[in-house]
Amino acid sequence: MSYETVIGLEIHSELKTNTKIFCGCATTFGAEQNTNVCPVCLGLPGVLPVINKRVVEFAIKAGIALNCKINNFSKFDRKNYYYPDLPKNFQTSQFDLPIAEFGYVDIEVDGKVKRIRITRIHMEEDAGKLVHSGTTIKDSATSNVDYNRTGVPLIEIVSEPDISSPAEARAYMEKVKSVLEYLDVSNCKMEEGNLRADVNVSLRKVGATELGTKAEMKNLNSFKMIENALAYEIERQEEILDDGGHIVQETRTWDDAKGITLSMRTKEAAQDYRYLPEPDLLPIITTDEEIEEYRRGLPELPDARKERFMEKFDLSSYDALVLTTSRQMADYFDAAVRNGADAKLVANWIMGDLSKHLNSENKDISESLVTAENLAAMVTLISKGTISSKIAKTVFEQMWKTGDDPEKIVKEKGLVQITDTKAIEEIVDAVIAANPKPVEDYKGGNAKSIGFLVGQVMKQSKGKANPGLVNELLKGKLDA
């Protein structure tokens, strides 16, 4: 039986503030457990919260960048539920009047653009963190609570159920992450929990309009985890439905080591959080003039930068998308081109050798010893014919290890490309004399055999011969 997959994401992003949302405690990650706390974020009796103005500013910027309507009037509410990591027994969040609503982002998967609608963006405080003795809550004998994260400011970005596959879910999460990075409102370090998602997934028969029963998976904090968890959960639900069973509405956890989802708790009905207006915080009033001022102050965002790269540098849609997904990579590309390097060559080196080295060592581009200026200088040496693309590989390896200037490396190691026609001609003559069979094959009509001869010339010149000149000399002698 054929099914349609229906997915919605609730993305939680910690905001890049120095202090928490309602108190002056630090938001530093990795501090000793239960040290970044005070009576306000611990919810002790008699305390009063005060809103961090920077949180509101960041939320409004995110709302505008994600094409939302910013509400002139919004308020905080108390979301009542009990969990050990919630010391007040309620979470200060927003309910019926959030800061932003009715947005969207456009994603691209397999060359097709799709619009994913955003229901709302609201501000809230983060909960604490359970520290389990095992690998997951399911296999833990004990769990301790660290309240350092309690009160760290969050925005929750809730999508409509417009996502149809694990690949689309990943693309949507990547796009939202990219926008937040460009705005510089969140560190977006998924490994630190700065950015994580609750994922809802259900199946329905193809052509049906009514949504199926959903399962929810909480706190997925990597793109790979989101894709893998969804792929498994879709397969699990398909098997149950094909066998005539029924999906149970429940919250499940992803076991990354085993590659499976596990049931945590069933949800027979939607939980009643008994929201009530937060009496200790004033409503947030934002004028149209203030909203426009925030809009004018936004940086160039990923979609706009992608279009600029395509129009100004004649890059393909795919190349421009790869280069602009990360603000740091886009800044790196811009810096290299500003230094006079050929844009297409720069793009190829960033997406090729540089990305390969970054990925293999699990580094961010900001940690690369190869600066944008030095990459530009190396690309310029290629364009001028000073070094060949093959020699450039050797130069890049040295730059990656040492961070040295490419011109210095080329001079010290004697890697300047040979462009002296007479010197190359001597090597060509020697190669032709030493390889009668490929020469005979070429003259007999096998044009591909010249590739072997070119390779021999390059080998004897230790990669320094100008490849274009080698081809030209070989053809001239063999066709004579």
What does this structure look like?
This protein has 480 residues and is an alpha+beta fold. The protein has three domains: 3-290, no CATH class; 300-413, no CATH class; 421-478, Arc Repressor Mutant, subunit A (Orthogonal Bundle). Helices cover 40% and strands 20% of the residues. The chain is built from 15 helices and 16 strands. Strands 2-6-7-10-1-11-12-13-14 form a nine-stranded mixed β-sheet. Strands 5-4-15 form a three-stranded antiparallel β-sheet, with no helix packed on it. Strands 3-16 form a two-stranded antiparallel ribbon. Strand 6 and strand 7 form a beta hairpin. Helix 5 crosses helix 6 and helix 7 packs across helix 8. It is elongated, with a radius of gyration of 29 Å. The chain starts with a strand and ends with a helix. This is Aspartyl/glutamyl-tRNA(Asn/Gln) amidotransferase subunit B. Heterotrimer of A, B and C subunits. Belongs to the GatB/GatE family. GatB subfamily.
